[in-house]
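To assess whether the prediction recovers the assembly geometry, we first specified each molecular entity separately, as shown.
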Amino acid sequence: MKKYFFKRLFYTIVTLLIVSVILFVLTHCTGADPAKLVLGIQATPEAVEDLREKMGLNDSLIVQYFRWLGDILHGDLGTSYMKNKTVTELLGESFMPTFNIAIYAEIISMCIGIPLGVLAAKYKGKSASVAISSVALLGMSIPGFLLALFMMMAFCVKLQWFPVAGYTPAMEGFLEHIRSMTLPAIALGFPQAALITRTTNNAMLEVMNTEYIKTAKAKGASEGAILFKHALRNALIPIITVCLQSFAVFFGGAVIIEQIFNIPGIGTLVFSSISSRDYYVIQGAVLVIALIYVVANILMDILYGIVDPRIRITGKSK
Amino acid sequence: MKKSRKHSDRYFMVKSLMKNKLLLIFAGITLIIAIAGILAPVIAPCDPYLEEPVNRLMAPCKEHLFGTDIYGRDVFSRVLYGVRLSLLVGVMTALISTAVGIILGLLAGYFRIMDAVIMRICEALSTIPVYLMAITLITLWGVSTKNVIISMAIVYAPLVITVTRGVAMSIREQTYIEAIRAAGASWSRIVFGHMLPNVISPVIVQMTYIFASAMLVEAALSFLGAGIPLPEPSLGNILNEARNVIFSSWWLVVFPGLCLIFIMLGINVLGDAIRDVLDPLSN
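The predicted structure of the complete assembly is given in tokenized form:
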């Protein structure tokens, strides 16, 4: 297990290094000159040249890359060209809104998805199961941004249950905080809830066919005990996978949902810095999101070990 | 002999697909929308670019089935052209990413050295969320339909590569490959003659997925203004233009939105049905 873990860690670092190269190449091979973007169109060529020298843009790309990488290893992600702040500061400001909404969306999608998936498996072939899988299918077919628009039309103007846009930090009133995050969290969480429902349902159906469930039934275990104690616990691996993956999906989908609801999170930060070619911010933010994805994957492996002792002992499933 | 068995397999598959009523209904709706989109230049009642400021933001009526937008353009015509463009983006993305993915996947599956390089790059690409990657590529290269398709093909190619490589690797280990290699078969014959045919059917399942999600991502990107550039209509940028007036003009959101949902429903139902038929155990 230890050996496996270190191997895994090594590959993770290699992956992140490749991500950093991809990001660096992508942002630097665009032809746009950040010095010109900072100074505006009317800047004199001398001023541009001066700033280029100061920003280190005249060095070769390889030198620039390794300087950037070296800075990252020292915890310095660079400074934004446009906003006059370090990338770490910018990320620090925008991380919490995105993170809170992602947690909220995760809670919503798990609270809807897992029980519905279990119910659909319990009432297999009956109308309840058909209804649940139809809703899940619909949920998977509605894009999050469309759901956001529909919800805005329904809840924000006529009913005025939720604010149309904006984000209230937790400091300024917890209830307002929750209210401002509800619609974005639903828009992010609902499609994932549908996915979790289906995954749970499939995993449960597979487990319900096994011999030990038949044994449990035969010995007269109650239905609740069979469903939750025997079946759900053994169906947990794919459910954990889809739940943790959805957390990474929330960070990716934040770009769109945050734009709609005008939330000052990582998505908005990335979007605005892409349009202003703010290299260091794009690189830093995307790297952080990639890191979250990678950490979610490692967490997944650890949880597998906790859930399934076979993995803990042998290092692999079944 | 072999051919007739294959034929009956396919017949069986189509027959069991036809039994699925849900599939027939939704596939039917999707097909109608798709055909309407493809035939947009023929059936669209108005020019989708024609601005009639007098008629701006008209509610749905006889002349304008889906109403008009903020510039007085006919929404029905724009939605038809939008569907056409979405389908084009979906199909092209699926085709390009599949072609690139199959070639790279086969190479990774056959040559051990390339495997390490290609798979590490794929892994790295898969840690960057789809939307972010696509937005970054498109904004940096400039917004145009061509760039939207190319960037999404890059985003989705790793999926095909992974699937292809998996199949190719399992085939490489089989005894008959060893045998024909001993008999002097070249690598190209093993790769294209034996691995490629086996890769096709799992890749087709991936293609439907890529087709659907490419359409979805395109809509989301155009909605953000980072996809298909205006004034060319796409389902996403019609919704984008509607953003400022959604509270007064519901038709600008509801009709293109419903179109998108129905297309997605049709593709998802079809995908489920195909998976059920290919893998009866999962049912």
